[in-house]
Amino acid sequence: MGILAGKAVIVTGAAGAIGFATARVLAREGARLMLVDVQADKLAQREHELRTSGAEVIGQPADVSRSTDVQAFVAATREHFGRIDGLFNNAGIEGHIAPTWEYDEAEFDRVTRTNVNGVFLGMRHALPVMLAQGAGAIVNTASIGSERGLAGACTYNASKHAVVGLTRTAAAEAGPRGIRVNCVMPGVIDTPLLDSVLGPLFGGDIAAGKKTLGKVAPLERIGQPVEIGEVVAFLLSDAASFVTGAAWAIDGGALCTIRH
Prior knowledge:
Layout: E1 8-12, H1 17-28, E2 32-37, H2 40-52, E3 57-61, H3 67-81, E4 86-89, H4 105-133, E5 136-141, H5 154-174, E6 179-186, H6 192-201, H7 206-214, H8 225-236, E7 247-250
Parallel strand pairs: 1-2, 1-4, 2-3, 4-5, 5-6, 6-7
Helix pairs in contact: 1-8, 3-4, 4-5
């Protein structure tokens, strides 16, 4: 029996590296899962992988920036499992890199719709279900960029600051009614996206790039997606019963000091 045995949990961005790694941890801990992602084909593959490993899982393609899509997967989760115990509000995009004074307005809106509106809508539609139950937990994905300025990433940076604000507000509002809301702030994590960025920067030597980038943190390495999942599982579980409104850095210590 895992720490999430029998709990029904929604994971958005479930086809991505962090989303899927977290879904695997949640399944290991006994959660029943609704997987959500805008990438329908990849989502179907992830759903199949988890089901063949013995997990109780369903999937639904959705764009988290669309209220109708969010309402639909929340309703489907409740209909299938009878309740919603947890939401990992994880879907997000990075956006283009450019200085603020050159940033494309349409791109700013696109990133904001997914990263801010998506988190809001997930809570907007899942919280009424949890409030009716008198129990539930939400974890939103922020970033170490929620605590620092990231040159060239004004939209991503602003959106992840907003996630912390949304988290704290919802925690203050829903806490008296038995609902906990927290967020995680991943640091540099080993994902395919990181590989695509480091390759050109380090002449194709991705391993060297990861070693160099890892030195910004006292642990002197980058993180693995599963390391995000382990913390998310804890925050969604009853073991974190007195934790709400918190922003948990999962960054190897990058935010605790000034290095290189």
